[in-house]
Request: fold
Amino acid sequence: MANVAEVIREQAIALADFVRRGGGLFVFLGDKTNAQLSNDRLRDREGELILPAVLVDGAPDAPAEGWRLAPKMPDHALTRIFESMPEEQWASISFNRYIKATALKDASPLLSLAPGGEPLLLERTLGWGKVLLFTSSADREWTDMSIHPAYLMLVQQAVMHLTRGSFERPVSVSEALTFRVSVEEDV
Reply:
């Protein structure tokens, strides 16, 4: 989803069901995003927020040169693309606007903005699936990242990350393997 103005309740429930069954959802924000409406509507059947963070109304004032990617990143499939290239190659990416987000307890911030350390990319597991939230836009309206080679690599890695099943990841010899088994009602 990129810069979606409104999601009706039925759509949100369908998205949550899709993710809980093992699907992946990547949400980019933008000028059409209404933080409060998104917080109210993007919920599952039980009322739990689908996003990895609560969105906060009001756009922060950008520094004169904009925000940059914070150089400190966790070890994650989506951050390794930045670690694989010299910092000088991605340090010039600028963000002029984003929507503030307060991460949920079970969410992981993957990319942050500097200065300030505000989350830019967050991840949350929901059932068997995952949700990624990018707090800036997917186009050039709020950032020049979309014209940088790292953007295409990030989106490609995100798609692979969101579509890979839990059984398709490498595991250590001592690590437990968990498989999902479907039970048929008429068995």
